[in-house]
Design a protein that fits this description.
Number of domains: 1
Oligomer: single chain
Helix content: 40-55%
Number of strands: 7
Strand content: 15-25%
Strand order of the largest sheet: 3-2-1-4-5-7-6
Largest sheet: 7 strands, mixed
Bound molecules: ligand GEK
CATH superfamily: Vaccinia Virus protein VP39
Distance between the termini: 39 Å
Radius of gyration: 18 Å
């Protein structure tokens, strides 16, 4: 279904919410808004083949409709693996349960409606934060990454994908323009782009690559590198 949420002029722009309207158009919205999204989803599968171990857990934190979960589940050949997909939007959770159930697999998936701040991470070989940390209050981010590092087994992998900010204003400006061009090329109007931007401005807080890298290393990861970047969207791999 096509994302037309911000296409008409709104009298009042409310903060962005992952409600039923958003969940219904989410695959179209994220594909047309986030450069590289489909590439990242595909490669979560190949990363899972390399990092997931027998008898361990995988956590997909902020799982939306389950795209990352399904990509990993399609690729894993290990025994005794359990995937936990967690999201605090009831609309996303109810839809993702149906989507995930519609594919056959021997790998168990539990979809949980909760805030990722509340969930215990244990015996994990892979954890995914695919464009979710950016929605968590800044002051809670370090604590969350520490919990993830603690719950990962040695050699386990965190994939952290985020919209990023550049400290250099010249770079920030022209790369932001390139992202806007990407949205225009994908059929979003100037009105849609500006209304969505306003709805997201206090909700999605991007940070710089240096801030992310420093936080990952402080939180207990032994590596923190970028494996993919397009414009102001980057995906880090951090190994415990
Ligand atoms: C994908 N990973 O398709 N606790 C749990 N869920 C949260 C929280 C929170 N505190 N805050 C936000 N969310 C997905 C895409 S979308 C990214 C992730 C985007 C959830 C929110 O409900 C939404 O489903 C998701 O994080 C962010 O690979 O829309 O840009």
């Amino acid at each position: 279904m096509k994302d037309n949420i911000f296409s008409d002029k709104l009298c009042q722009i409310k903060d962005f919410d992952f409600d039923d309207k958003v969940a219904a158009v989410f695959p179209d919205m994220i594909r047309r808004s986030v450069p590289g999204y489909e590439t990242i989803i595909k490669h979560l599968g190949s990363l899972s083949r390399r990092f997931v171990t027998d008898n361990s857990n995988i956590y997909d934190l902020g799982s939306s409709l389950g795209a990352a979960t399904l990509s990993m589940r399609r690729n894993i050949e290990n025994k005794g693996v359990h995937i936990y997909a967690i999201d605090n939007s009831s609309s996303m959770v109810s839809r993702s349960k149906k989507i995930i159930e519609s594919y056959e697999s021997t790998i168990d998936v539990t979809v949980i409606e909760d805030s990722i701040e509340n969930v215990d991470i244990e015996n994990a070989s892979m954890v995914v934060l695919n464009f979710t940390l950016q929605f968590i209050e800044k002051s809670l981010r370090t604590q969350l990454l520490r919990k993830i590092a603690k719950g990962l087994n040695n050699g386990g992998l965190l994939v952290l994908s985020e919209k990023i900010h550049f400290d250099n204003p010249i770079t920030q400006n022209f790369i932001d323009e390139m992202h806007l061009d990407f949205k225009r090329e994908n059929g979003y109007s100037e009105l849609e782009i500006s209304q969505k931007r306003e709805a997201l401005q206090d909700i999605l807080i991007p940070e710089s690559v240096d801030d992310h890298r420093k936080r990952l290393l402080d939180a207990g990861f032994s590596t923190a590198d970028i494996w993919f970047q397009q414009y102001n969207f980057a995906s880090f791999v951090a190994i415990k």
